[in-house]
Amino acid sequence: MSGPTDPPPWRAVAVDTFRMARPLPRRQLLARTGVQIVAVWGFALGVLPALAVQVDRRLGLPRARGRRGTGALVFAAGSAVGLASAWVMANDGHGTPIPFDAARDLVVSGPYRVVRNPMAVSAIAQSTGVALGLGSPTAALIPVAGGLVWNAAIRPAEEDFLAQCFGDAYRDYQRAVRCWVPTWPPYRA
């Protein structure tokens, strides 16, 4: 029987899905990262918004107009942060953004100096940009839902895994750098 402060059972299962990458040349890590980017971004930023637009049509929801430029800027900024984060993960962390191929070294450089999970922040920005560009009320729910799911289900398991792997170094970093809001001045290890 679990007590009131015990983590939920799914959290242990989630932690078990995180594994460090095998030692591989940087070129292979970057290739794996590229495949992940194409697959995840294609689904999250292409397929899901297309389905959202279909839901809008079926429900007769109006589309907002005049936000394409703003959406493109938000999307581009999010993409730049996401690509920089993926590069640093492969180059400095010797792993990939994929949980079962995680970085072998604690990553506290690049965008990680400013926010603990710049990839999640990037994904929320990208999906917000797509929703603005499409003018879709249903697509606007994607970044909200994604942020809530990431924060409630993925983040705790990822942080448990990182604490197990990197101990005090990660806990020091975790105390110094905020999860969602940029930390200034940037972290220095």
How does the helix and strand content classify structurally? mainly alpha
Name the overall outline.
Answer: globular
Radius of gyration over C-alpha positions, nearest whole angstrom: 18 Å
Which residues sit in consecutive blocks of at least 5 with pLDDT less than 50? none
The CATH level-2 architecture is identified as: Up-down Bundle
State the name of the first-level CATH class: Mainly Alpha
Alpha-carbon distance between the two ends: 41 Å
Helix content, binned percent: 55-70%
Largest sheet: none
Mean pLDDT over all positions: 91
How would you sum up this structure in a few lines?
With 189 residues, this protein is mainly alpha-helical.
